[in-house]
Specification:
alpha/beta, Rossmann fold, 2 domains, 5-stranded parallel β-sheet, two-stranded antiparallel ribbon, 3 helices, 24% strand
Amino acid sequence: MRDLDKQLFSCPCCGKSFGKFQAHKGREKAKCPRCKARERHRLLWLYLENKTNLFHDKLRVLHFAPERWFKALGTLPNLDYLSADLEPGRAMIAMDITEIPLSDHSVDVIICSHVLEHVIDDRRAMREMYRVLCTGGSAVKPEYYTRELSGQAIKRYGLKPVQGRVKSL
Ligand SMILES: [Zn+2]
């Protein structure tokens, strides 16, 4: 008989509950024992599910380098979903993020998790994402962050809030 009191940890990525998550790279309770999703995957899933309209509104979604935990997004009936990866066979189409073969303002949401740190011309990639996003569109772009790098990142990207056309989620 299952002891439900011991099912303390739930994984939003696979929908299962466990007595605990597994350790991963020195972090306790980091990895789902079933689907292997780690903290950032579960956090992104919860964010998309609870803080965006991705699961109910009709949206055109472009998802770069989709991690396996997010394949279910491609099955949501409300989404016009396209996944892309630089490497052929890893997503629905092969695409260079610095030359997105889509029309201007043709996408409502871009998901681009932990991609830009691998792109040499990341400014061009950002310009391309901005170009294809529609007015009021959203880009979800979680990236690595450390206090040590934050000053450099701000200086390098010259981060300024984008008013009007792109809203933050
Ligand atoms: Zn899981």
